[in-house]
Amino acid sequence: MKLIKNLAIVAATIACLTVGAASAADFPDRPVRMVIGYSAGGPTDVIARVVAKHMSSHLGQSVVVENKPGASAHIAANDVMNSAPDGYKVLVTSLTLNVNPLLYPDRYNYDATKVFEPVSNFASLPMVVVTNYDSPYKDLQSLIADAKANPEKLTFGSSGFGGSAHLAAEMLATQAGIEMIHVPFKGNGPALQEMIAGRISFMFYPSIGIANYVADKRLRVLAVGTQAPHPDFPGVPTLESAGMTGFEEGAPFVGMLAPAGTPQEIVAKLNKAAVAAISSPEVKEQLKQLGAQVIGDSPEEFRKFLVADKERWAAVIKNGNVTPE
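Predicted structure:
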């Protein structure tokens, strides 16, 4: 009886391996669901939809976008991390993936590279430092000088606590040795309108959708968080030229991940489709128009990025003494 039982276990194991291999070989044979933790129309959503559309043609199956905003994008992350690791449900997210467990370890107890299989980092969204056009600050140096002379006088806006604009400003505060007051809003839009009205001193903002405000002399760009000068803002210096480092690497990313345990063959197929989509001239141009910098890396490269990203924000949160509000 024991021999028969052992043979049955071996047979079952072989059957599971055979089914797994077959499913990986046939993937995908139905639509893939791309879950996004942010509202429709935002930068992450827009980039994901552009890539999803072109991934569909490379996979031979539809890639259906599903928005699940809420809880700093954790509703979507939790949904995907607890889904079947078969490649049919993937997550597209940004820096909150690493920041959430750093700020709220009791609420979000996970390590991104352990509960997900990184697929590809689509693009990054460089941040720029903006102020009201009539602001007394005509460059970053004058803003920093005022902040040093008057601790906690300057206010900076953000899309919310722990968001990219908040943490970028904390990076600046730490490196420049200044103290400022954080004014969080429910989204980048409301924060930007307060900036235009001149009710906050400055803010970091993704380099998306502000060119018209700059052209209409409603906003002034003081610095760009890119290694080289940004073509959309000629004559504006980089943060690095002012001695502020790490802002290019710390720009919000838009990347795709699958649940942990997804077969590597499936991860490779998803990556191949994503990179092919991102590499197409049409998508490159669309992302460029959005102000995004195209990446399209390998799963292993994205994994290494996520590890470094976590270390970066852990240091910012610790050095800036950023605690949950």
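Summary: Residues 127-242 form a domain with the D-Maltodextrin-Binding Protein; domain 2 fold (CATH 3.40.190.10).
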